[in-house]
Structures are given as C-alpha cells and as structure tokens.
C-alpha cells in the first residue's frame, strides 16, 4: 500500500473526529427560525427518531445544545435530589467525574471501582451489590475514552437491575462504534455526544430517557436546580411546539446527516472491531505497551508513552512532519499515554495505515527500536 501523508492536518484524536463533506454541506444550509417554523419541529422529531434507531430504543430521545458533558450534567441534575443515595461505578477519569456531578446536585455518593487498567469487574460489582444496593441510581461509562477501555455495559446494567437501581450511562465515545441495545439491556438514560463516532462537530449531546426515569424526573419532591440542565422542561416540547431555548439549528442539520450516515453504514461495528484489533496487534508487536490490560476499546487505543519521550515531542513531530494529530490525555494520565482515535469517519484502513506509518517514523527517529513496521503489520493483521 502506498499512500501519501495528508497535506492538511488529519485529526486522529478520540474526538473531535473528521467531519465528512456531506455533514459540512448540511451545516451550511439556509436556516429558518426554529422556534416559529413548525417544519423545524418535525425535523427535530425525525432526527430524534433516527437517534432512537441508532440506540435501538423506543425511549424518548432529546437532542440538546451543548457538548457531551451537558448530557451527563443534565441527567444528574434532573434525577438526583439532595440526600439521595447514589452509586458511581468507575474505572477512570470520566467515570469518576460522574461522581462530582452527582455530588453537585446533592447526591450522597458511594464509589465502586475494581482497578483502573481493566474493564469493570462484574463479579466484584455483584459481590458489592449483594451487600450494598440501597441506591436510587448508578452512573457508569461505557467507553472510558482516556484509558481506552470499554466496560461490559450489558452485564453491569443487568447487575443493577436485580436491585431495581436506575442506570445513567455515558456512551459518548462508544455510540456508533460498539454494540448498544438500549431497550434489550434496559438502560434508563443513555447519553452521547456529536463529536466522537458520530463525526459531527462538537456542540450537541443527546439522551434517551426511559419511562421510569421520566417518572422520577417529573415526580420529584424538590425542584430541579438549573434551567439548561432541567430535562423536565423538555417533556412536552412537541405537543406545545415550544423549545426551552432556541435550538442550534445548523448543528442539528449537520448532526442529522451524520446520524443518517451511520445508520446506512451496515458494517460499521465489524469495521471498528477489525481495525481496533489490527491497531492493537501492530502496536504490541512493535514493542509498545497498551494502557489497558483488558476491555480494549474498539474506538480508541491508549498507549503507554515509551520511556524517555514525552507526549509533546511525539505529538509535535507527528503533526509537523506528517500532518497527523494524535491525542494525549489529562488528569492522572497526563503525559503518561498517547491515544489514537479510530472512531466514526476515522475508522478506515487508509487513515490508520498513515497514522501508524507516521508513528513508526517518529518513534524510530526518537531512538525507539520498533520490532516490526507498525503500518505493515497493521495491514497484515486486518483479517486476523
Ligand atoms: C468526550 C467525552 C465526553 C465529553 O467530554 P469533553 O472532554 O468535553 O469532550 C464525555 N464522556 C466521555 C466518555 C467522552 O469520551
């Protein structure tokens, strides 16, 4: 395979991701007044229905103006009342961060963790729940993006359901790239963002909300703190033809096309699996160490920084010499790892081939002796 390095920076980060021309065209469409134009209410509704299809759910879906974090915060703000006992199941930065939102809205948070370099241990969680299960709800993350770990969402959720614990799941970086069966698995709130596997620009979050979750939101004893995070404001937007605030119409035009593209892409889950697997094989065979010990994500790969280098050096060389942008991480992973996103529009052979070829050059240049040619090994392992 011979491919030229890109002439403009190619973003291979775990979000934001590449935005297709079709989505960019949709973003630039003429707008209407979305609060007044009844056609826009139908368009918004159709877009929500497309998201339902993507999430395999009949639960109501809302699309909100704000990045993924707004979805997390809105779920916590709307469901948690002061003094509620809530469980934060976590094995990384986003999972733990959920606990901060739970606390912010008055939740009495208990944390469960079974180690940071592995997927959440369902057996250990079940043992914990056997003794402690007096929780109104639990939060967890499907793909812990900074760590590159995908948690067993179905099994975690079914453990929670045994005790009638409501679930709020952050699937921001997995929706579109990993299997998700919202209804079959009985997930109460599943939330995502526009800039990961959906490959639309950042700025939109969406949530699916079960009947049980709605009941809790609408039957609270205390009012919801905040307006922007108050999901109850959205309960009858369609009947009333009223949005709590003017929707970001252009972003929704782009987002809608992005969801359609995913729905048409029948082998996307297979492709994410195949590419992720080949990326990991090539990095490991080259002598690099992956951060996760198990639970490897199909949308992002997190690699321990080789000794003697820094993220900044690798990042700068990748960008200045090959026009490829890779991700670092923050919090306790800052300058410990680098990350390659292979999600959504970036999950194609040619893009990973070039990314690995660039990385191969950069690491050799820095004196790291790779045991195989990363890009060649990647191609050879695509079908294994
Ligand atoms: C990207 C992401 C979010 C949104 O966070 P930002 O850093 O603001 O983009 C939330 N949860 C997960 C798991 C994510 O990957």
Distinct small molecules bound, one entry per kind: pyridoxal-5'-phosphate
The low-confidence runs, each spanning 5 or more residues with pLDDT under 50, are none
Q: How do the SSEs run, as a string of H and E? A: EHHEHEHEHEEEHEEEHHHHEHEEHH
Please give the largest β-sheet.
7 strands, mixed
As a percent range, the share of helical residues equals 25-40%
How large is the radius of gyration?
Answer: 21 Å
| CATH level-four homologous superfamily name of the largest domain | Type I PLP-dependent aspartate aminotransferase-like (Major domain)
Using the coordinates above, name the CATH class of the largest domain.
Alpha Beta
Named at the architecture level, the CATH assignment of the largest domain is: 3-Layer(aba) Sandwich
Distance between the termini: 18 Å
Derived structural class: alpha/beta
Rough outline: globular
Q: Total helix count? A: 13
Count of discrete structural domains: 2
Look up the CATH topology of the largest domain.
Answer: Aspartate Aminotransferase, domain 2
Note down, in words, how this protein is organized.
It comes from Petrotoga halophila DSM 16923. One of its GO terms (biological process) is glycine biosynthetic process, by transamination of glyoxylate. GO terms for molecular function: alanine-glyoxylate transaminase activity; L-serine-pyruvate transaminase activity. InterPro entries: Aminotrans_V_dom, Aminotrans_V_PyrdxlP_BS, PyrdxlP-dep_Trfase, PyrdxlP-dep_Trfase_major, PyrdxlP-dep_Trfase_small, SP_NH2Trfase/AEP_transaminase. Residues 35-309 form the Aminotransferase class V domain. This protein is an alpha/beta fold. The chain has 2 domains: 10-18 and 267-380, Aspartate Aminotransferase, domain 1; 31-263, 3-Layer(aba) Sandwich (Aspartate Aminotransferase, domain 2). The protein is 39% helix and 14% strand. The chain has a 7-stranded mixed sheet, with helices on both faces. A two-stranded parallel sheet has the order 1-12. A two-stranded antiparallel sheet has the order 6-7. Strand 6 and strand 7 form a beta hairpin. Helix 1 packs antiparallel against helix 9 (249-264) and helix 3 (68-79) packs across helix 4 (93-104). The longest helix has 19 residues, at 268-286. It is globular and about 65 Å long. The model has no long low-confidence stretch (mean pLDDT 97). It binds pyridoxal-5'-phosphate. Pyridoxal-5'-phosphate binds at residues 15, 67-69, 94, 141, 145, 170, 172-173, 193, 196.
């Amino acid at each position: 395979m011979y491919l030229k390095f890109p002439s403009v920076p190619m973003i291979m980060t775990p979000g934001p991701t590449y935005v297709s021309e079709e989505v960019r065209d949709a973003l630039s469409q003429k707008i209407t007044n979305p609060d007044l134009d009844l056609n826009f209410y139908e368009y918004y509704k159709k877009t929500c229905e497309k998201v339902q299809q993507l999430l395999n759910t009949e639960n109501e879906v809302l699309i909100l103006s704000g990045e993924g974090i707004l979805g997390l915060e809105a779920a916590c703000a709307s469901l948690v009342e002061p003094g509620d006992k809530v469980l934060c199941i976590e094995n990384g930065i986003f999972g733990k961060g959920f606990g901060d939102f739970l606390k912010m809205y008055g939740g009495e948070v208990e944390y469960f963790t079974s180690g940071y370099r592995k997927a959440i241990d369902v057996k250990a969680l079940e043992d914990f729940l056997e003794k402690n299960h007096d929780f109104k709800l639990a939060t967890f993350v499907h793909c812990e993006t900074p760590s590159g770990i995908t948690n067993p969402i179905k099994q975690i959720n079914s453990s929670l359901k045994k005790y009638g614990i409501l679930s709020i799941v952050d699937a921001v970086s997995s929706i579109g790239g990993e299997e998700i069966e919202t209804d079959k698995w009985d997930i109460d709130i599943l939330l995502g963002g526009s800039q990961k596997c959906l490959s639309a620009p950042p700025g939109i979050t969406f949530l699916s909300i079960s009947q049980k979750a709605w009941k809790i939101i609408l039957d609270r004893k205390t009012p919801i703190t905040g307006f922007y995070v108050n999901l109850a404001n959205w309960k009858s937007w369609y009947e009333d033809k009223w949005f709590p605030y003017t929707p970001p119409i252009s972003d929704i035009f782009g987002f809608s096309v992005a969801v359609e593209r995913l729905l048409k892409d029948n082998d996307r889950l297979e492709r994410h699996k195949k590419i992720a697997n080949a990326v990991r094989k090539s990095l490991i065979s080259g002598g690099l160490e992956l951060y996760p010990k198990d639970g490897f994500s199909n949308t992002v790969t997190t690699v321990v920084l080789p000794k003697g280098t820094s993220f900044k050096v690798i990042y700068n060389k990748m960008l200045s010499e090959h026009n490829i942008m890779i991700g670092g991480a923050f919090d306790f992973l800052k300058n410990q790892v680098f990350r390659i996103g292979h999600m959504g529009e970036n999950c194609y052979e040619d893009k990973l081939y070039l990314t690995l070829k660039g990385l191969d050059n950069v690491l050799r240049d820095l004196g790291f002796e790779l045991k195989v040619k990363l890009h060649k090994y990647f191609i050879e392992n695509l079908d294994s």
